[in-house]
Amino acid sequence: MPGNTRSGLLAELAVVSRRHMASYALFNQALADHLGLHPTDLQCLNLLTLEDGPVTTGRIAELTGLTTGSATRLVDRLERAGYVVRERDAGDRRRVLVATVPERAAEFGRVWSRLGGGWIALFDDLDDSELALFIDHMRRATDFGAEQAARLRAGEG
Fold first, then answer.
1. pLDDT, tens digit, 9 for 90 and up, residues 101-118
2. Residue 74: which of 38, 32, 104, 46 has the closest Cα?
């Protein structure tokens, strides 16, 4: 069967990957619309909830690949929407940190859990080694995507 050859499988993987990325982008748009956010703002909020605590706007620029000016405008929008606040760094009063508003972050987490709750169930039939392989793939794909986005921003194509 042609689909079982390596070249056939790689061709199928290319198609499935593109469909997956499109599906996730459309899901991201729908969730952002639901929350009244821009899709980039939604993903920034997502990344902020994964950080260990408040971060600088420079760190937000690193996380998102935005310029510091664009990151500042993104923070302005999240602040107006009530998801983040700016606060002075207790250790260095000159630094301003961006912190998620706990109640709004919890609300975001609840929406994410309701919509993504079935995600974990997709892996119920995998054993630990298959799950570890999938985790490795997700990490590598995340790194690859970040590298490609950086190349595009640098004008490479």
1. 999 999 988 988 888 778
2. 38
Q: How far is CA 109 from CA 55, 58, 96, 97, 115, in A?
A: 19, 24, 25, 21, 10
Q: Tell me the pairing of strands 96-100 and 84-88.
A: antiparallel
- Beta-bridge mates of residue 99: 85
Q: Helix 57-64 vs helix 39-50: angle between axes, to the nearest 10 degrees? A: 110
- Residue whose tokens read 């606060």: 87
Using CA atoms in the order 106, 109, 115, 119, what is the torsion angle rounded to 10 degrees?
-150
Mean pLDDT computed over 31-37: 92
Nearest Cα residue to 111 out of 134, 139, 83, 88 = 83
The CA-CA-CA angle for residues 84, 29, 32, to 5°, reads 25
User: What type of residue sits at position 149?
Assistant: A
Mean pLDDT value of segment 134-153: 93
81: tokens are: 């929407």
| pLDDT of residue 11 exceeding 60 | yes
pTM of the model: 0.85
For residues 93 and 81, give the distance between their C-alpha atoms in angstroms, rounded to a whole number. Answer: 25
Q: In 3-state terms, what secondary structure has residue 131?
A: helix
